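Please fill in the sequence for the structure shown.

STRUCTURE ENCODING:
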């Protein structure tokens, strides 16, 4: 069987049925061991710049305004205006009605415009509404769509509904010129309850054509955790071994410090490998992380921490 739309519902059930159970103790012990790794000064500088380039700078509040989005876009392009060697971030993520503002502010810069869609964050809407939400964001200029799965359907065992919705939203990401916005599928792992469910949801999303699998909306606790991300990295590694298709991973929510980010980068390198050590295949959905990365970057350059007004407060 090949992945994406080419597989039948029976094929999908077969693949999911063949998945082994997750060794919780082993998974958590492996994550804890990876979290103890330390890196030295030169490698740390490289890791910080890599982490900056992997950030999806995000604002998803009811009080968002065009002005806030323009400010966020400026920060995405030049996170440290005093240092032109500081890399830009991977993408700016906003609600669909603000996609056009972000697209205009970023211009032709190589920074993506991501938009949450499909009744974010609950995912509780009829499929035509989810498709319209996606099509509107893509038409406004979104290069990436972050959709949420229907966790109620998943947890009640209606896996085919979840699969078919992902397939349909992926199709809605297509543009008239034949190109397609990349699709990140949010599993909301904090609501899936078990590691077995996380593994099953990861494979289900990849079989349906996800370009990325993402842990969380950031609106539910717990959000991203290192064991869950490790499990998802194992899933994308094994999926590529099985089908020859590479899928990205995005932990989102709760990653706030440079120390945390480095733990995740070590986990990516040790689990999936160097092919995933790029913004094309790994992202951080953690806007508050960027400020700490910038502060730590400045400390490496000057030997001291900058003042509290060194970075903007988003």
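FILLED IN BY: designer on duty
SEQUENCE:
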């Amino acid at each position: 069987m090949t992945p994406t739309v080419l597989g039948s519902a029976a094929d999908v059930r077969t693949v999911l049925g063949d998945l082994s159970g997750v060794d919780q103790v082993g998974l958590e012990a492996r994550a804890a061991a990876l979290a103890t790794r330390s890196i030295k000064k030169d490698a740390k500088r490289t890791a910080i710049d890599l982490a900056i380039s992997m950030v999806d700078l995000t604002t998803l509040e009811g009080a968002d305004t065009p002005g806030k989005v323009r400010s966020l876009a400026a920060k995405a392009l030049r996170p440290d205006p005093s240092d032109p060697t500081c890399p830009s971030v991977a993408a700016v993520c906003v609600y669909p009605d603000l996609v056009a503002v972000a697209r205009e502010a970023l211009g032709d810069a190589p920074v993506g415009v991501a938009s949450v869609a499909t009744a974010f964050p609950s995912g509780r809407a009829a499929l035509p509404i989810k498709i319209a939400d996606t099509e509107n964001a893509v038409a406004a200029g979104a290069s990436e769509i972050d959709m949420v799965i229907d966790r109620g359907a998943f947890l009640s065992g209606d896996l085919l509904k979840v699969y078919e919705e992902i397939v349909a939203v992926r199709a809605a990401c297509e543009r008239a010129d034949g190109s397609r916005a990349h699709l990140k599928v949010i599993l909301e792992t904090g609501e899936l309850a078990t590691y077995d469910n996380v593994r099953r949801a990861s494979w289900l999303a990849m079989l349906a054509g996800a370009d990325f699998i993402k842990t969380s909306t950031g609106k539910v606790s717990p959000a991203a955790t290192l064991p869950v991300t490790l499990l998802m990295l194992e899933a994308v590694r094994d999926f590529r071994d099985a089908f020859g298709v590479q899928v990205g991973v995005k932990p989102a929510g709760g990653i706030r410090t440079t120390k945390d980010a480095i733990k995740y980068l070590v986990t990516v390198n040790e689990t999936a490998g160097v092919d995933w050590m790029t913004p094309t295949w790994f992202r951080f959905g953690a806007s508050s992380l960027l400020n700490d990365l910038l502060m730590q970057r400045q400390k490496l350059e000057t030997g001291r921490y900058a003042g509290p007004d060194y970075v903007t407060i988003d």
